[in-house]
Amino acid sequence: MASDDAPLQDSLSCNTEQKEAEQEAPQSLLHICRFCLSRDEEDLIPIENVLLLTLTIEDILLFTGIQIEEEDYGEIALCVKCTNKIQVCSYFRHCCLTNDAAFRELCADLIAKVKAARIEAKEAAAAAAQALREAEEAALEVEAANQPCDTIELSSDDEFNYSANYIKAGEVLHIEEPMYRPSDWDMSLNPTPPAVQRHPREKGKRKLHLCDLCGLKVGHIPTHYLDHSTVATVGCPYCPVKMKAQKSINEHIHTVHFKLVSKTCEICGKGFVHHKTYRYHMITHQDEGNTFECKDCSKTFTNSIYLRDHIKRVHNAAKKVKPKDSEETVKKKRIRSRNPEDNRIYPDSD
């Protein structure tokens, strides 16, 4: 019998414990903030007091998104920080709604003022135009009144015999000029333009086109634009050299790789790969048998090219003169000339 009563007593004790826990749980929730979960009891305020003093349940739902039932008011508390934040949001919303109504009234007033100003401007313009028309009409009336009128004096005999269509014998009538007049095109403001004269093209001569970049006249603009380009796209098949045009690559292959003779001296029969060396060689034939003396140092040369190079190299005032090495730089050069393999020092020239 005692064994049968044991399960019943256990179930009764569990039910009582559950009821006690349910009664104690709401009291423990008053020690936690519903929103930020703060446990600082000094800052916690029951939600019933908050709703009585500052906020409404609609504000809490609007700014937190949490629905709080009326039956749970005695079990929920809020901290001071959360209460202040909701109050700020509520005040800001109230200000926005109030200002929105004021803003709409202000817009309506401004629109009404603009419309009134436009109507006044139209009325003023119409009044000014009417005054101008009246002034013009008055001026025309005054002018017409001041003009003299032609009067016809009639005798008593001709008073009833006068006719406006009566023409005396031999009277010259006034003939009006025709309305249409043939215009003189030579004196007209819009004369006929002269015929376009095309430039005569010479037979067998290619037409040249003007380059917009350098102003030269060339035969083929797309090929000429490659000279202005800064990117070399055509490469040599025998070496890494790249150039802008295929013509330059062909000359490079003939002169550098194939060594083809492009010019031959008609005097001595010597062949040349490059046209510059051929030109210098022809100058030697031209200057053959002559001597060229430098006016600055009286040196003589057998070629005018040699004299020109001598003047550029020795007597050129614009050429920068290299400074002479001082003793310290000479010593540094000697130190650098040491051989690190055998640690030998080259003898001084002193």
Automatic annotation (TrEMBL):
UniProt: Zn(2+) binding residues: C33, C36, C79, C82
One Pfam family hit: zf-C2H2
ZAD domain span: 31-106
Bias type Basic and acidic residues, positions: 338-350
Annotated region (Disordered), positions in chain: 317-350
GO molecular function: DNA-binding transcription factor activity, RNA polymerase II-specific; sequence-specific DNA binding; zinc ion binding
Keyword presence, Zinc-finger: yes
InterPro entries for the chain: Znf_AD, Znf_C2H2_sf, Znf_C2H2_type
Coiled coil ranges: 114-145
PROSITE patterns according to UniProt: ZAD, ZINC_FINGER_C2H2_1, ZINC_FINGER_C2H2_2
Key words of the record: Coiled coil, Metal-binding, Repeat, Zinc, Zinc-finger
Ranges for domain C2H2-type: 263-290, 292-320
Entry GO CC: nucleus
PANTHER family named in the record: TRANSCRIPTION FACTOR (TFIIIA), PUTATIVE (AFU_ORTHOLOGUE AFUA_1G05150)-RELATED (PTHR24408:SF58), ZINC FINGER PROTEIN (PTHR24408)
Official protein name in the record: C2H2-type domain-containing protein
Species: Anopheles merus (Mosquito)
Lineage: Eukaryota, Metazoa, Ecdysozoa, Arthropoda, Hexapoda
